[in-house]
Amino acid sequence: MKILFATGGTAGHINPALAVASYIKENYDNVDILFVGTKDHMESRLVPNAGFDFKTIEISGFRRSFSPSAISHNVKTVCQLVKSNSACKKIIEEFKPDVCVGFGGYVSGPVLQKAVKMGVPTCIHEQNAFPGITNKTLAKQVDKVLVTVEDAIKHLDAKNKPIVTGLPVRGEILKADKDFSRAELGIPEDKPLVLSFGGSLGAKPLNDAMYDILLASAENEKYCHIHSVGTNGTEYLKKFEDAGFVNGKKGTVEVRQYIDNMDICMSAADLVIGRAGASSLSEIEALGKASILIPSPYVAENHQYHNAMALVNRNAARIIEEKDLTSEKLSSLIDEILSDKNELANIENNAKNMAITNASERIANIIVSLIK
Fold first, then answer.
1. What is the DSSP letter of 57?
2. Chain centre distance of CA 32
3. CA torsion sign, 20 to 26 to 28 to 31?
4. HSE-up of 30 (CA within 13 Å, CB side)?
5. 325: phi then psi, degrees, rounded to nearest 5
6. Tens of pLDDT, residues 350-366
7. Residues 6+ apart with CB under 8 A from 37
8. Where are the alpha helices (DSSP H) in 166-227?
9. For residues 91 and 82, what is the distance between their CA atoms, to the nearest angstrom?
10. Which residues contact 28 (CB under 8 A, 6 or more apart)?
């Protein structure tokens, strides 16, 4: 069987698609998989590195502005859409897929629309609680619409009733053990661990709010704390060094640039603080972690806020919007959560109950079921 995946732009779109493709490759015989993306985004590196065939089309998203540069960009995008129509047709005619799957990003739009017109069975997956424009449009046309959380369904005018499948979670997260991880990190039995990060690049507002908290924690040692400033947060490492941190450590606090053992750190944590990307939330749910979510307000459709509220409305997390974020407010909320063991357990259980740990299998089975 031949399966064509179309996705790109960000790791949040690409990695779930790769997880499902890998599951299909490992569990089904005689599978031929092709990815379609763009040559100048992450998919051009991640997909070939994962061992899958990869073809490109030229496409970009529209900019919501009337500035001269945005107008020029949008004119270019319209021209690319026209050209991509024939490029998509050629790829589909040559590959002859039995099913075409979109995992979001603007590249999936023209590929899936052409597949629909050519009579190829189609399926899309939406990672966020508030769907993007591409998937909102495609939902009206494709055969199956899959969503990570039920909250997304009310925002979709779908041809067929959407199916809640969850979002694929990395195997190392699913296998992680809290006791082993705490021992690995050297966390004392009598101290809770707080883990905070603003994504791989880091988030300046979170780093700013966390600075005073971490200095205080290093002195009073009420709890252990691991914080990542991100690859764009080098200036903060210098600030902590000037404040007496040696190799990023002082007291029970450790400051890193990047967390490369997230499975260990998150499984060991009693409280996680960070943004509200779909992949991070799926990992928090899979591990049953209490969390304080600070959604990025800079993402399309403000979707991280909606992602966060899917947990908050189920008492599975707490939220502080970035516009309201201060060191005092965040510190107070950390203390409030960690000091109430019963409520902490409630939040953990509610998060765990939201987890769908076999999402790759669910999605893969639906994709294969579409093959005639």
1. -
2. 26
3. positive
4. 2
5. -75, 125
6. 999 999 999 999 999 99
7. 6, 7, 8, 14, 43, 44, 47, 54, 56, 57, 105, 107
8. 171-175, 178-185, 204-220
9. 15
10. 1, 364, 368
**How far apart, in whole angstroms, are the C-alpha atoms of residue 206 and residue 284?**
18
From the list 227, 238, 240, 9, the residue with the least C-alpha distance to 109 is: 9
Q: What are phi and psi of 330, to 5 degrees?
A: -70, -45
Instruction: Give pLDDT tens digits for 166-225.
Output: 999 988 999 999 999 999 999 999 999 999 999 878 899 999 999 999 999 999 999 999
How confident is the model over 261-273, as pLDDT tens digits?
Answer: 999 999 999 999 9
Count Cβ atoms below 10 Å from residue 39 Cβ, excluding itself. Answer: 12
Q: What distance in Å separates the CA atoms of residue 311 and residue 261, rounded to the nearest whole number?
A: 25
Tell me how far apart the 2 most distant CA atoms of the chain are, in Å.
Answer: 66
Three-class secondary structure of residue 122 per DSSP: strand
Q: Which pairing describes strands 122-126 and 144-147: parallel, antiparallel, or unpaired?
A: parallel
Task: Give the span between the Cα atoms of 320 and 366, in whole angstroms.
Answer: 37
Q: Which of 189, 182, 209 is nearest to 325 (CA)?
A: 209
CA dist 197 and 203 (Å) reads 8
What distance in Å separates the CA atoms of residue 274 and residue 270, rounded to the nearest whole number? 14
Q: Residue 61 pLDDT more than 80?
A: no
Angle between helices 11-27 and 278-287 (to 10 degrees): 60
